[in-house]
């Protein structure tokens, strides 16, 4: 696994790359990709960082695991490659967008345009073995991504963190609420959404209102 990460992130992550856990993680991921089918493609493992430079972060959305089906994961949480059917959670994200800001339901589930505007689409675990959800959890990725969340909190100002579901909400302890805004709701997965914990959260319009109030340009969701 090559750590092909945007230059803007390197000053903040150089020390992390030198830690023993990260070296072990790199060896684990290399071995997994060599001996198994894994997602996302190796070239897209760090895509979230390469599409969203550190200084341009406005919003952070935290997912848990990459999609583990063929051709789905593209290195951005909740996002899929062009032409891939929308997974259930992504469908519910787009349905909430429809009702919140009246955005027509999109054809593509690729969220690259969000990333280009300063939305860091961060999975807590950046890789997964095909058809085995959670297979790369507890191997070091969470230590790495927790340090990223903490670094953003410490070094940036006025970032909106969207924490969807119990797993993401636990990350709130890493975020300085005096400097940043946290919006929390249920997860967009059908299990949560159909129980009334997702729809109607209006996180997209609320995020843009926060950004406008801080003098920042809103996201074109």
UniProtKB/TrEMBL annotation:
Entries under PROSITE patterns matching the protein: U_DNA_GLYCOSYLASE
Signal peptide range: none
Top-level division of the source organism's lineage: Bacteria
Record EC number: 3.2.2.27
Gene Ontology MF: a single term: uracil DNA N-glycosylase activity
GO BP field: base-excision repair, AP site formation via deaminated base removal
UniProt cross-references to SUPFAM superfamilies, sorted A to Z: Uracil-DNA glycosylase-like (SSF52141)
Primary location class: cytoplasm
Cell compartment(s), UniProt: Cytoplasm
HAMAP family cross-referenced by the UniProt entry: UDG
Similarity annotation: Belongs to the uracil-DNA glycosylase (UDG) superfamily. UNG family.
Function statement: Excises uracil residues from the DNA which can arise as a result of misincorporation of dUMP residues by DNA polymerase or due to deamination of cytosine.
One of the record's GO cellular component terms: cytoplasm
Catalytic activity: Hydrolyzes single-stranded DNA or mismatched double-stranded DNA and polynucleotides, releasing free uracil
The protein, known as: Uracil-DNA glycosylase
Keywords, alphabetical: Cytoplasm, DNA damage, DNA repair, Hydrolase
Span of domain Uracil-DNA glycosylase-like: 50-211
Catalytic residues (positions): 65 (proton acceptor)
């Amino acid at each position: 696994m090559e750590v092909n990460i945007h230059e803007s992130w390197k000053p903040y992550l150089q020390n992390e790359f030198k830690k023993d856990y990260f070296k072990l993680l790199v060896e684990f991921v290399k071995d997994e990709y060599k001996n198994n089918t894994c997602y996302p493609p190796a070239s897209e493992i760090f895509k979230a960082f390469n599409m969203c430079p550190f200084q341009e972060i406005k919003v952070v959305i935290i997912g848990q695991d990459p999609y583990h089906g063929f051709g789905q994961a593209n290195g951005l949480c909740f996002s899929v490659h062009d032409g891939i059917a929308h997974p259930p959670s992504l469908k519910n994200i787009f349905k909430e967008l429809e009702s919140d800001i009246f955005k027509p339901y999109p054809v593509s589930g690729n969220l690259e345009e969000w990333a280009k505007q300063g939305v860091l689409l961060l999975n807590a675990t950046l890789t997964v073995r095909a058809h085995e959800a959670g297979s790369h959890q507890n191997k070091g990725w969470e230590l790495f991504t927790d340090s990223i969340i903490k670094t953003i909190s410490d070094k940036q100002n006025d970032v909106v963190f969207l924490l969807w579901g119990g797993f993401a909400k636990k990350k709130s302890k890493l975020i300085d609420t005096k400097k940043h805004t946290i919006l929390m709701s249920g997860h967009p997965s059908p299990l949560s959404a159909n129980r009334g914990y997702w729809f109607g959260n209006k996180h997209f319009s609320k995020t843009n209102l926060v950004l406008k109030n801080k003098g920042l340009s809103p996201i074109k969701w």
